[in-house]
Amino acid sequence: MTESRYVHALALGLDPAWRRQTRDERCRSAEEFCASLSANSDVTTFAYSMIGLKAGVDMMLWSLAPSVEALEEKIAAALRTGMGTWMAPRQSFLGIIRPSQYVKRPTPQEQSLFSGERSKYLVVYPFTKSADWYLLGQEERQTVMNEHMKIGHRYQQVRQLLAYSFGVDDMDFLVAYETDDLAAFGDLVRELRGTESRRSTVRDTPIMTGIHRPIEAITRLLGAE
Predict the structure, then answer these.
(1) Do 169 and 91 touch, CB atoms closer than 8 A?
(2) What is this structure's pTM?
(3) Which listed CATH number (2.40.10.120, 3.30.300.20, 2.70.70.10, 3.30.70.1030) goes with 101-209?
């Protein structure tokens, strides 16, 4: 069995009182927070702005780690440092990256979103299937998923990651999509609504959409300038 890798999406909300500090206080606390996230670590983290896109959420941290302990330590360090002390978690999704039982040879479109250049947008949400889905035979499920994947492959501008969350979070999967074209992603989701796989969907919200920016740029948008 290959070594497990853990993927995590953390949505953070900033206390509005932070903006009422002096400029020097805001800049100093933002610098400390950015330095904590950028410190050498086994955890790879990318930052996404969500200012005004979701009530109560200002940024999303998208991380890949070799263990949940490593994730916990990095998040704890960030939240006790500078600007991080003014932030509170609003959503948190955890999953484990494992080979898909429905895809024999994953394409670059279906592999980790932590390699190569970042696309402009990241869309993340929890996903749960019905009990009836898991009681179907493997062949029947494969047929349904083949239709689902055929549609997905028509949208090459959208990369995706499916992480398994069974037993480690409230949902079955953590689903993430990366793209430079949100309108095309919307078309993909709308088309997938008409497939057989939709019948077995129990939960696919809340949806978090973030804009990729350096963490320093996000803190400047929030008032550290």
Answers:
(1) no
(2) 0.92
(3) 3.30.70.1030
Beta-carbon contacts of residue 71 (< 8 Å; ≥ 6 apart): 6, 8, 43, 63, 65, 94
Helix axes 138-152 and 182-192, enclosed angle (nearest 10): 150
Residue 154 is encoded by which pair of tokens? 């028509």
The two three-digit tokens of residue 171, written as one number: 């949902």
Mean model confidence pLDDT for the chain: 93
- Examine the pLDDT at 1 and tell me if it is beyond 50: no
Return d(Cα 142, Cα 145) in angstroms, integer.
5
Residue 28 CB neighbour total at 10 angstroms? 15
**N residues, the chain:** 225
DSSP per-residue string spanning 86-153: GEEEEEEEEEEE---SS-SS--GGGS-TTSSSPPSEEEEEEEEE-HHHHHS-HHHHHHHHHHHHHHHT
Domain 5-96+211-222, what fold? Answer: Alpha-Beta Plaits (3.30.70)
